[in-house]
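User: We ran a pulldown and think these components assemble together. Before we commit to crystallization trials, I'd like a predicted model of the whole complex to look at. Sequences follow.
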Amino acid sequence: MSTHEPGADLDPGMTGFDLVREGARRDGVEIVHYAPKFPVPGTRRERRIERTIASMFLLAGAAATAFVVIYIVLPVGYSPGYNSHKWMTPLLGLTLGLTLLGIGMAIITWQKKLFPDEIAVQSRHDQIPNEAERTLTGATMLNMVEELGIKRRPLLRRAALAGLAPVGILAAAPIIGGLLKDPHHPDILFHTGFAGATKDNPIRLVRDDGSPIRPEEVSVGGQMTAYPGIPDGSSVKYADSSALLIRLRADDALTLQVNLHSRGNEGRMAGDLVAYSKICTHAGCPASLYEQQTNRLLCPCHQSQFLITNNAEPIFGPATRKLPMLPISVDDEGYVVAVSDYTEPVGPGFWERP
Amino acid sequence: MKRRKVDVAALPAATARQIDDRFQVATPLRRMFNKVFPDHWSFLLGEIALYSFIVLLLTGTFIALFFDPSAKEVEYSGSYTPLKGVVMSQAYNTALNISFDVRGGLVMRQMHHWAALLFMAAIIVHMFRVFFTGAFRKPREANWIVGVSLFWLGFLEGFCGYGLPDDALSGTGLRIASAITLSIPVVGTWVTTSLFGGEFPGDVILDRMYIAHVLLVPAIILGLITVHMALLVKQKHTQWPGPGRTNHNVVGVRMFPGFAAKGGGFFMIVFSVIAFLGGLFQINPIWLFGPYKASVVSAASQPDWYVMFLDGSTRLMPAWELRWHMFGHGYTLPPILWPTVVLPGILTVLPLFYPFIEARFTRDKTAHHLLQRPRDVPTRSALGAMAITFYMVLFLSGGNDVIADKFNISLNATTWFGRIGILVLPPLAYYVTHRICLGLQQHDREVLVHGIETGILRRSVDGRFYEVHQPLAAADDHGHAELDYAGWVVPKKMNRVGALMPSVRGFFRPIEQPPGQPTEAPVSPAPDREEIGTGTRQR
Ligand code: HEM
Ligand code: FES
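Assistant: Here's a predicted model for the assembly, 893 residues in total across the polymer chains.
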């Protein structure tokens, strides 16, 4: 721009689209093709397209009105059975969808059918690196370092580093320190709600509602989920504690007893009853699909399978460890009790796990 | 002059003048209006992701007004009778209230969830587009890296959202997440107790996930999307090779009004699809799952689809665990470490650096603004097909119990199919794709040399039959009409060279070919051979 007043170089004779083209040219854009869709205005085809677009807008308006009416009129809340409460969500979705569809189709049709055809070509000249610019900016940046004199002043350099490093740690400290929680004090990874149970001081196995369980109440070949009989024992507070209490068929119980015997785990069943942790040793889902015929316990999350008659060893899937056993017995009043905590850590593996 | 009349017609111009007096926006504004965008259907995929994110913000803000992420136990007293009197967390309680007792709450919740699924799907398909066309090459590596980060952030955001309602499924997902963090070597247990504020589930995790889900992660996503768009504007869009298109220009329509109108309309349509889905198709019916209980299994517990591939990798992992003794103590590397910590790590780092790895192998240091057809880069396309196959095997394995059940095959057989498939199928996909690419290349060049098959059979005087071919260029002095391949689409049918009406119209029609205008054959000689070449051709 050589003249004194910017913009005085514009040819005063230019009007309308010439100005648009000139503006584009200054932005590096060449409009190489520009033609109205309808060179002769008001043809029947053009009017038909206009009517189509108009009807789309009107459809949007009608659907929006319907949305508001439905929103106000239909009852909210749940009511069992088939009734008008069930209509709210689908009708709102339908009318909202139609509203937006109407607007969207109208705009796109307008653009596609009525806007002039255009081909514009924009140059990428601004994406070509400019060596002179680089040199100038580089020199400016080097000058910043120069002004600081960091090279010449080693004392300042070292002092700044030494002074600022602790500030970085300071910034990180509240975040890490606030969240940090020791997993070993208290030692939550190795104990469950059955912690503290002994032969003399057993903890009862209870149902969801806190009621104790008699051995007869588990049918032969059946199973039941049991929780520690302590306050809140069945709540998520003791998420690792639940046990699967299984009553084996007599011959299966014998197989398991023999297997336990060979591993020195004798005396941990109560008759045909046995209790294993319900928490899968793979990733902690409740492993609770018990196949009576094969005595297999299947975890639904990643399909690990545990063979109960072989001391709940994993036989398929990604789990690597057996389900921990809960040593049980029957107390004087005839209820099932745990005589110790689980014999090993419950649930998924971790680094410090032996 | 006491009384001044306001000249309404001159008002916009006067206002504009006042604004420009103060801010001098005339030039930058016009530059933005005049920005040229190339047109191709595959460029809409990223837009779908952007629009679904906007819908996520809108619907998410609505449900957040009624949601309380508290683990405090309350007795349900809402209108959903089957759960009356059940003790549950306040989070689950308010999620139920949103579903039943907030007017329009369920449609908003379902739209939010559908938008999340669509968001992730759009991101992934958009990423395929960028990969297979080489749009990530210099100078666009940074935007590729931003894109990969957006995928993982979307994944994290979705996972946190899935955990919020505290139903049986969210709880199971969280349980597995805690097992994953537990498996990290050395610091796993510390990380887990620090995240959960003690033992799983504890009572802080919902609040922490909530703040991550509604503030931290969305803010980062929004920031990254801004960077993504800013880089796109600065570097300008890539374009497909074609008549008049070179490495030094962009051919298309100006942003205003043409491109903006199309984009705005398309946003409305994406929004409307989400509204239809949210209203008419049930998603995550949390009231059927019940509140989370650590000991209760949820039937066919499946995560959202974008998490399923990691579920699959976890299922396929053989029961391999490393245990050893050291300083009088035993240590463990659990099997879940490999498919859920190490694998995602690889799946983050490898894509992140792919643009640089490829440039290294092809020794390509030049900037590219023209896209490549997948067939012209067989090695990359084959690698992509290999990655997709790997992903698909994992994805299907994530639902292997459903597959086993529906098709009545043994569950263990589907696991073994996955374990073998993950080793065998990806290399097979590589080989097949590579061959297909070469075959397509060869066919393109045959057509350029011999012309298009017209389908017209002639019989010569000596009784031989032959098919008439339409050459694509005028014959030279020797009667040859050969064309070099220029990276453009080669017409294979007569109607593509204007002998008949185009067979595909509308959406797929290139903008160079306005209706009613004589069609320019897309094979006119390239104006600038060197630049339009397919760049680094790998064989
Ligand atoms: C990238 C973006 C996002 C994704 C992928 C995403 C995904 C999800 C998913 C999958 C759920 C499960 C909930 C259900 O089924 O109802 C959810 C819930 C939720 N989201 Fe988002 N979301 C996103 C952004 C947001 C934003 C920006 C907000 C708020 C400002 C938000 C607020 C919520 C709330 C409050 C819930 C709990 C809803 C409930 O009561 O069920 N989300 N989100
Ligand atoms: S949690 Fe049981 S198999 Fe993974």
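Residues 501-539 of chain B have pLDDT under 50 and may be disordered. That may be worth checking against your pulldown data before setting up trials.

User: Thanks, that helps.
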